């Protein structure tokens, strides 16, 4: 008698409510579980670059870039390190409570079941901030074990593991990951000096997550996790560290009246040191030290889906988020000695009500969404005192502000036969300025940027039309769009050193003085395309994003009129070819980013860059594979940053990895 086969793994990939019916009317792309599982030490932000139009503020990844420059956006709505796309994990917004950037080392791709990129504004269920779209990450809950270990160039190591166990009538998932490396020298060789050195990094984190039934048609999801990320920026006195703790509870009712309720809390701690350097780059010296940057966020959301009959979906709900944070820093140094201590920060919150109705009638589908939010900015402060005497130099308390903002979207689509779907949408969206933008001045090298407590929310109006075609193993999606971002926040150049300027003090020769300001608008028109073909062991895929983005403004920022927003490229493209059979696989990924500008005046050019990545896997035993990866295989020059005094910074050079992957 043959023994019974072992039971299959139980996989719960989407404990929340089903995907909204109206989202099929927008440009949606996905990163599936297989690609996420095979990522190894490749960060989540690098996987997102494969999708058309996804832009990180810097071309550097999270192993070498400054953490505060890691914002994410879509559709060329760049020019600011704060995110203009809304990133959520299991329904929880992920933007830093103080600065709006993303802490990418907080995520291990191997613990995700799927990443959905929903392009276009007007999203109503996760709060404001989705000016350009929403990136939704869903956690993986599966019984079994998987793990990866890798060793790479420049002393790099990475490891991750995930175990899913039956517990309490559900699935308990424990996961952990970590990586370290000696790093590379960020400054390009042509301008490098004796003080320049490699930029080591170390990061790690873990999560504990339980998903299971707690009643008839009632599911509970509980999560607790944390991360720690440390980096240096290639000079003495440029170390930084970010730590985070997160917890969330979500209840999902799956009866005739489907519903969900979510509550979460987030804690962030950040510190960062900044350095200057002499003209010969022989010695570095500290210029500022953010010794304590605490951020806190608390939020909730509820959604109800009443049964209105076949072909109709109605969503009704509410959510809110409270954010508070500050930056305590030694803001100026003279001859290596701190002279001024600064505190800046405040609180912001928003809460809203939303509704969405989607109706399908034969080949036609119509959808409308609406939302209204109440926002507040309170307790804003900027204080400076002399370190030696304690004498107060600046003591500003900014007036509390509040207001109401709408979000809306109308969309329609029609199915033509079995192969073609046409869709269109128009939408409104908005983003609240971050506490960092409102209250904290800062310096980057010889450049200085003043804060602006009077910044108003950014506002988006947009429209798009698209078509999706599929037949057999082939798919093609095309989307044309036009967006107008009103009151965009940008760092506007107002003067050059040497000189003393309001809000920042003295700026040396070669440095620029800027202030965060609301411009009149940014106009963007563009085209996105994504295609895929599968046949047997082969998969071919490609994406293309074309965007003409232009600043339209006057007044103090009139010099920017007609220019491109900083850090936005007119073209981004990617292509992937993959072969897989009997556990063996080989893949190549090509990425191209067009020319962009470092600064608002379009004087500092970031040249176009094309990189090639490769990955392969070979089975050694049941569930065990040998893996090999190459990042930037051709060692292409990728300029990630440029300063007004001629210093250029590069992104990751060629990196080779060899490892083992286990899945049982």
Automatic annotation (TrEMBL):
The keyword Signal applies. Pfam families: Plug, TonB_dep_Rec_b-barrel. Its main location: membrane. The keyword DNA repair does not apply. It comes from the Bacteria. InterPro entries: Beta-barrel_TonB, Beta-barrel_TonB_sf, Plug_dom, Plug_dom_sf, TonB-dep_rcpt-like. It is found in: Cell outer membrane. Keywords: Cell outer membrane, Membrane, Receptor, Signal, TonB box, Transmembrane, Transmembrane beta strand, Transport. Residues 225-633 form the TonB-dependent receptor-like beta-barrel domain. Belongs to the TonB-dependent receptor family. This is TonB-dependent receptor.
């Amino acid at each position: 008698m043959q023994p019974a086969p072992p039971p299959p793994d139980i996989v719960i990939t989407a404990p929340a409510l089903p995907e909204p019916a109206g989202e099929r009317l927008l440009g949606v792309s996905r990163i599936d579980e297989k690609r996420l599982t095979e990522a190894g030490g490749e960060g989540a932000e690098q996987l997102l670059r494969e999708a058309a139009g996804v832009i990180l503020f810097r071309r550097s990844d999270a192993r070498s870039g400054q953490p505060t420059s890691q914002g994410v956006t879509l559709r060329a709505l760049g020019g600011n390190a704060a995110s203009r796309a809304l990133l959520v994990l299991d329904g929880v917004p992920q933007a830093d409570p103080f600065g709006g950037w993303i802490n990418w080392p907080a995520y291990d791709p191997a613990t995700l079941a799927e990443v959905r990129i929903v392009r276009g504004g007007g999203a109503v269920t996760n709060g404001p901030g989705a000016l350009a779209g929403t990136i939704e990450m869903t956690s993986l809950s599966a019984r079994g074990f998987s793990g990866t270990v890798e060793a790479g160039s420049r002393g790099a190591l990475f490891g991750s593991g995930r175990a899913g166990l039956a517990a309490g009538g559900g699935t308990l998932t424990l996961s952990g990951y970590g990586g370290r490396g000696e790093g590379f020298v960020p400054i390009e060789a042509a301008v490098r000096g004796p003080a320049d050195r490699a930029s080591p990094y170390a990061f790690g984190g873990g999560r504990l997550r339980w998903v299971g039934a707690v009643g008839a048609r009632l599911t509970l999801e509980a999560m607790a996790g944390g991360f720690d990320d440390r980096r240096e920026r290639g000079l003495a006195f440029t170390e930084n560290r970010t730590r985070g703790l997160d917890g969330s509870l979500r209840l999902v009712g799956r009866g005739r009246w489907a519903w969900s309720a979510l509550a979460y809390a987030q804690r962030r701690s950040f510190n960062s040191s900044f350095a200057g350097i002499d003209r010969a780059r022989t010695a570095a010296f500290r210029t500022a030290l953010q010794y304590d940057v605490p951020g806190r966020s608390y939020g909730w959301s509820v959604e109800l889906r009443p049964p209105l009959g076949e072909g109709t979906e109605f969503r009704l709900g509410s959510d809110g988020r409270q954010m508070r944070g500050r930056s305590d820093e030694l803001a100026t140094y003279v001859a290596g000695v701190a002279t001024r201590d600064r505190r800046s920060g405040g609180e912001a919150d928003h809460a809203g009500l939303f509704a969405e109705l989607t109706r399908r009638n034969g080949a036609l589908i119509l959808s409308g969404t609406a939302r209204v939010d109440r926002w507040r900015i309170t307790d804003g402060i900027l204080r400076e005192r002399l370190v030696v005497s304690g004498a107060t130099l600046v003591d500003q308390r900014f007036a509390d502000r509040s207001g109401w903002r709408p979000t809306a979207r109308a969309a329609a689509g029609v199915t033509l036969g079995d192969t073609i779907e046409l869709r269109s949408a128009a939408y409104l969206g908005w983003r609240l300025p971050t506490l960092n933008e409102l209250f904290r001045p800062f310096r980057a090298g010889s450049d200085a940027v003043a804060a602006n407590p009077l910044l108003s929310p950014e506002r988006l109006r947009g429209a798009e039309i698209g078509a999706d075609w599929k037949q057999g193993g082939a798919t093609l999606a095309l989307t044309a769009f036009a967006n107008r971002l009103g009151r965009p926040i940008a760092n506007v150049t107002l003067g050059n050193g040497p000189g003393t300027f309001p809000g920042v003090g003295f700026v040396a020769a070669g440095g620029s003085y800027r202030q965060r300001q609301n411009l009149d608008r940014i106009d963007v028109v563009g085209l996105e395309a994504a295609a895929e073909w599968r046949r047997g062991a082969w998969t071919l895929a490609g994406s293309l994003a074309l965007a003409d983005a232009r600043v339209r403004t006057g007044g103090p920022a009139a010099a920017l009129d007609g220019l491109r927003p900083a850090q936005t490229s007119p073209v981004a493209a990617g292509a992937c070819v993959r072969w897989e059979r009997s556990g063996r696989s080989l893949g190549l990924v090509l990425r191209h980013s067009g020319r962009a500008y470092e600064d608002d005046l379009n004087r500092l050019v970031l040249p176009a860059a094309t990189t090639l990545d490769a990955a392969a896997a070979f089975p050694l035993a049941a569930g065990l594979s040998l893996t090999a990866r190459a990042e930037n295989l051709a060692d292409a020059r990728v300029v990630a940053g440029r300063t007004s005094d001629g210093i250029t910074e590069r992104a990751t050079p060629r990196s080779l990895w060899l490892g083992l992957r286990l899945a049982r």
